[in-house]
Amino acid sequence: MTAVTPQPHAPHAVLGSGPAGTALARELVRRGHSVRLVDRRGEGPAVEGVERFAADVSTADGARAAVAGASVVYHCVNVAYHLQVEVMPRVQEAVLAAVEETGARLVVLDTLYPYGETGGAVMTEDSPWQATSRKGRMRAELDERYLAAHRAGRVRVVLGRSADFVGPGVLNSSLGATVFPGALTGGEVVGFGDIDLPHSYTGIQDVAAGLATLGERPEGDGRVWHLPTAPAVSTREIHAMIEKRVGRPLKVVLLTRPRPFGPFDERFMAEYEEMFYQHTEPQIVDSGAFERFFGVSPTPLAETLDATVTWYEQWLARG
């Protein structure tokens, strides 16, 4: 099929309205783009300048409708953890076919899972993909298909990898709703694994800004980039930084193995067990290549924590 060239002012289509997709939609509007934010329902709070759109992008027809007329498509879709191995390949197949038809560029939000256990080595874009977990192997296979599609000239694609999210709107993260509500109310705060090991966290605004930059800068296409990520510190040090901001000591509950806690139920934790190595060895992300190439720097961790505490204060006040 002959590709259709998107118009200069065609919208940027963001697939997935979770914390990353929503933050990205706002960032793209801030940069002057027309934005379509896609999820299965097309519902949710109004975001200024953003068109909400309902489509199931795991289907060919849904993906085609979601990306119609878009110049850049951002794949920020995620699904319930226990469904990822089954559903994410279907989403990839449908989205790749849709963007191949339209000629849009594809920006994929990616994880560190393909690297697998590193023994604490610093992760760069040149680190080997040696995942042994089901979800890690699945992610590595998807990524190779994306890059193969680019090499074959089918789709212009670029991948942005992020460490664990932290920031406003981030709930289901190891530094999300299991930490900040308890910190602000005097309740329990979870710590996964060995909290004295260095662990990288990527601010959600840096995820958004990084993906938007990849969407605007096609000279970065055809490869994996690490999105801007502040230098790694230990989770215990982050807890201390949060203590200063909330004015009370944290009541930390250490989970040395996966078990249900807060928003992480038994089903999730059973699926997460194979990924728990991320908390028993250092997880250190080097985003220097992105920073040098695109001339950006990650948000300092202190600023991210300031914004996150403020957001959670407001979230708790809303009940």
The CATH level-2 architecture of the largest domain is identified as 3-Layer(aba) Sandwich
Stretches where pLDDT is under 50 for at least 5 consecutive residues are: 1-8
Strand order of the largest sheet: 3-2-1-4-5-6-11
- Contiguous helical run count: 10
N-C termini distance? 51 Å
- Tally the beta strands: 13
Number of domains: 2
Summarize the biggest pleated sheet. Answer: 7 strands, parallel
> What percent strand?
15-25%
Assigned CATH class of the largest domain = Alpha Beta
List the secondary-structure elements in sequence, H or E: EHEEHEHEHEEHEEEHEEHEHHH
Rg result: 19 Å
Judging from the principal axes of the Cα atoms, what is the shape? globular
What is the name of the CATH superfamily of the largest domain?
A: NAD(P)-binding Rossmann-like Domain
Domain NAD-dependent epimerase/dehydratase: 16-220
GO cellular component, one term: cytoplasm
GO molecular function, one term: aldehyde dehydrogenase (NAD+) activity
Protein name: Epimerase
